[in-house]
Design goal:
single chain; about 130 residues; alpha+beta; GTP Cyclohydrolase I, domain 2; four-stranded antiparallel β-sheet; 4 helices; elongated
């Protein structure tokens, strides 16, 4: 998507994908694992798929969900920022997708004060 193009208004949204994985800076996070919750918004033009009722002209959201989960489960890393980048790359590998927003929540983050959520959010495009 060029800098003069705006983001498409159509999107596929996956919310609340729960994944058990071993990411984190601390040894106990890597050993015990924890739950992560991932939200993905993939921006793409859905008009061709809608007009032709053609799954081949869009992204299969069921398969995309499985790919996102697999991306989060593999290769433990220290930062959820890295996990978010990995998920964004997975989504952008689908040619119809022009841009993606990824939020990775870490509800069991090792924080010493009460909290409702910890998350990182990134937006990437096919620039």
């Amino acid at each position: 998507m060029s800098s003069t193009q705006s983001r498409p208004t159509d999107s596929i949204v996956l919310t609340g994908l729960r994944v058990r994985a071993n990411h984190g800076v601390f040894d106990f996070e890597r050993a015990d694992g924890q739950d992560f919750v991932v939200d993905v918004t993939a921006w793409l033009d859905l008009s061709v798929a809608a007009k032709g009722d053609d799954l081949g002209a869009t992204v299969h959201y069921g398969e995309l969900a499985e790919e996102v989960v697999a991306a989060v489960e593999r290769d433990p890393v220290d930062l959820i920022e890295t996990v978010a980048e990995r998920v964004a790359a997975t989504v952008l590998a689908h040619e119809p997708v022009d841009a993606v927003e990824v939020t990775v929540h870490k509800p069991q983050a090792p924080i010493t004060v009460p909290f409702a959520d910890v998350a990182v959010r990134i937006v990437r495009s096919r620039a």
